[in-house]
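seq:
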Amino acid sequence: MKRLVQVLATMFLSLLMAALVTGCGKPSGPSAGGEGSTSQAQGKASLFAYVGANLKDPVSELAQAYEQKTGVKVELTFNNSGALLNQLETMKKGDVYMPGGMPFVEAAQKKGYIEEIAGPIAYHTPVIVTPKGNPAKISKVQDLGRSGLKLVIPDKEATAIGKTVFKTFDKLGITESVEKNSPTYVESPAKVVAAILMGQGDAGIVEYSNTYKNLEKLDVVEIDSAVNIVDQIPCATLNYSNQKDQARDFLEFMKKEGPAVFEKYGFKTKI
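struct:
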């Protein structure tokens, strides 16, 4: 009998010790999800922005600065302006729309996508670039109509700068002459720069900001302001936004901080 009592006492103590150990290993209270769950609950929803490919550097910096200031992340998708409009039409969601120029914002506005427009934040200013030394002796935009030139131009339908420069060609009556040279059309001004640097053209059209990193490798021929057509770069909020107050706040931030950042990356902010 005495031995049975000892066995039972030993078993009871073992069970008690096991229960204590198991209890110590469990998280206590409502924090069982850990700090990550608390942070997620307190986190702010991100904004989604459609941005022109040629605006990548300044807008990326501005989005990062906005996140540091407010804690709100701005997710960015980059493409040429025509592709961005197609994306917007297909996805029918998002908060901010910033293509390369006003014509694409106006097109979106006509379709009922735009809530509010701010700007211009900066300007898209077409310029001519040539290989170093300007071997084709391009001195003015009218020279692009000379027979036999190899031209590289941003797509006239899909890019803001392409649309703009063809307005200048139309204004000067040289569109037909330019097109007889069978220009190479590319998806962005950055690809024009790349093509000229690789010797694939006598001249190309880019945005003024595309030249500032390559001034030692390219010649720049500015287009006479009397004939050049300079396009505004606006920023807009979308009617699709589920967080319109936050989107408007980003718009105000862009209006205030945008011009200085764009200028840093070679864009003109005054005309």
